[in-house]
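Why does residue order matter? Because the sequence determines the fold. Keep that principle in mind as you read this record.
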Amino acid sequence: MPRSQQPSLQQRFIAVVSSHKRTLTGLLLVAVLASTVFLGKQWLSDPWRFPLSVVEVKGDFRYLDKQQLQMAVAPHATGGFFTVDVAAIRTAAEQLPWVHRARVTRVWPETLRLQIEEQQPVAHWGEHGFLNKGGEPFVPKSTEIPRALPSLAGPDGLELKVLENFKRVSKTLAPLGVTVTRMQLDNRRAWHLQLDNAVLLELGRADAGQRLQRFVRAYPGVFAGRLDELRHVDLRYSNGFSVYWEQAVLENTAGKQG
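Structure:
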């Protein structure tokens, strides 16, 4: 560049100063914006400005104690509309045995809403627990519990497997007019069934579904009309089964007494 066209020292100084001014102006704007956001957040987070005055609890409750629910969430329902810890409230609610799922939302300007989905027991599990429709176990502390449910049992972690097999077995036996009241999967992974007439079915470990079908096929000719006499059917054979009748037990008992 010719010497005559090069910027003078004064021009270069002015350009540098202008650049620094723009930088300082930008930094100042950022600082003002950050301060505004911080102060606004502080202002909004003041619980006295937007206090919560209404806590709504919604849901269809059959077993859940509302007072117990309120006591569980009350310590966490503190602060203002913007500061209340909804995650802590949800966790506290879902720790109650009869609460399956909880949803917590804020409703402007002063309401906190709890939508509760209660556990729906579909079967007894073990000694004191229940299974919900998803095969998840839960153990309520309340004494007001449903009784007219099937009793299922099995190793920990296999709750869903037992429940799903119970549904398949119930569907298979439905045409016979009998229902399963108890089902157990023991530690050896063998299946044991008890029908509503107290008849026991032993299915064993392997091919349990096929063995049950064998009972269904034999039912019209062997068991129909004689369920009152039937006590136990052992289906753990490759091609047949053994049957224990009430009459045979009575005859054996009479013979021993004579």
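DSSP finds six helices and twelve strands in the chain.
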